[in-house]
Amino acid sequence: MGAAWSRTVNPFKQVPPPVFQEDLICNGPFTVFMCPDGVLRMCGGDSQSSPHGRSRDPLYIWDVDPRTFATSNRRALCDSVEAGLPLRAEATPVVDMCKLLLHQGNRQIAAFRVRVRAIDHPYVPVLLNEAERSASTIYHTTLTYSKSFPDPWGFDV
Q1: SS3 category, 89
Q2: pTM summary value
Q3: Is 28:35 a contact under the CB 8 Å cutoff?
Q4: 132, 95 in Cβ contact below 8 A?
Q5: Could you give the CA distance from residue 71 to residue 39 in angstroms, rounded to a whole number?
Q6: Long-range contact list for 2-11, CB < 8 A, 24+ apart?
Q7: Is 99 exposed, middle or buried, given 0-12, 13-18 or 19+ CB atoms closer than 10 A?
Q8: Which residues, 6 or more positions from 25, have their beta carbon under 8 angstroms from its beta carbon?
């Protein structure tokens, strides 16, 4: 399954038919954020681009054109293999559920989860081991912009 987009002024009224993006294939969640530099960015997996053949590893981030929904500038936020995480391939590593937190100056934190599908379910024939249990948690990375942006919150203290 791929990403589907729809544009509307009011999501509580009739929503136009979605535009399907066939070039991104993932069975996991995509999240979309307007970043402080004004660029719409999408986070998620892509089994067609994964060097491991997994739809949720690596976790990618793309720039999105809000008029056409075309994606560009794909880069990996986290690749479990490159990061050296102790996750066996047969346990099916998953890196997903990315959230971009509010920026501060020229930095923004991307938080995401890492786990394996082998969590004692019958669809994966291996069981979670202790190293994988310890590595299965919430991780983060920092996005750094070329300039600082105004704080999103303004409090008079």
Answers
A1: helix
A2: 0.88
A3: no
A4: no
A5: 11
A6: 2/26, 3/30, 3/42, 3/44, 3/69, 5/69, 7/66
A7: middle
A8: 1, 2, 46, 47, 48, 55
In one letter, which amino acid is 1?
Answer: M
Distance of CA 64 to the CA centre of its chain: 13
DSSP character string of 1-23? --EEE---S-TTSPPPPPEEETT
Q: What is the full per-residue pLDDT of the chain (157 aa) written as tens digits?
A: 667 888 888 889 888 888 887 777 777 889 999 999 999 999 999 988 999 999 999 999 999 999 888 899 999 999 999 999 999 998 889 999 999 999 999 999 999 999 998 766 666 667 888 999 999 999 999 999 999 999 887 776 6
